[in-house]
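Database export, one record per block. Field names are fixed; values are copied verbatim from the stored entry.
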Amino acid sequence: MKGSRQIASVSLAGILSVLSLGVACAEPPAGPAAKPAAGNCPRADFRVVLDVGHTADSPGAKSARGVDEYAFNLRLAKQIDRALLDAGFAKTVLMVTGGPGVRSMYVRVAHANRLSADLLLSIHHDSVPDKMLEKWEYDGKPEIFSDRFKGHSLFVSDDNADRSASLMFASLLGEQLKARGLHYTSHYTEKFMGHNQHALLDADAGVYRYDTLFVLKKARMPAALLEAGSIVNRDEELLLDSPERQQLISAAVVEAVDGFCAAQSNNHAPQVAQSRPRHAQRVAHLPRRHAPKRTVATASARTVVQSNLDLH
């Protein structure tokens, strides 16, 4: 790991009393030569924050075979991170936090805002409401599943600082996933989803409105959340676990980011990548046994007041 350790404080008035972040810097890992910028996208300066949903302590949903959602999120986010770096998006940030779920939300969004990123993409995998789950046995252990729905979904918040740009990116990503033969799930529009029912903003790309998602609402840059597929669906879980599906999704993200970057650059060329530290901050806090040489960040927060926002 290269670079020096820095300590920074971030406050969210009325929410956080104290928030401290430890950040170290590292060079992007070696890989294939970066592709030249396509169109008018300044890839080397465009910063994407990849938010790994949940934490090791609050791992999210369980898959049909008993694997934590967090493991799926981390693996896919690392693949997307590599794909973006290989495509020339050298300032991409892989953001991984620890601790309880509520606290991690504040840490993640505060750090993303501190980085002055151009785009935030939060990576998740889907489940269903508890009432829809069924029981089965896998590998001699009782597990839960639901084969009723499959497919990805995308969410944006009308309360985001740049709602129109958030929707633009989510639609671009949905179209890229569709172009690769992937289909979104439409069950979020159904009444039986109850409080989990959401309005479909883009019926072609599979983009839903979810105003109270914390990271989307509080981010000061365009932001979208990707549910890459349903891990409680037994067949889809196996697909999502495959390198082929992860690479397919990663390629879609790269194309969507490039298209979004070009569109934003054409509209706001002087504003891209302004007011950023000279060094490229590569942020990650991975489990020790899997930690690569560029594992570079830890985060902690205290005196956090829980809000009524939806935490993912």
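Remark 1: The CA atoms of residues 262 and 268 lie 10 Å apart.
Remark 2: The first strand starts at residue 5 and ends at 9.
End of record.
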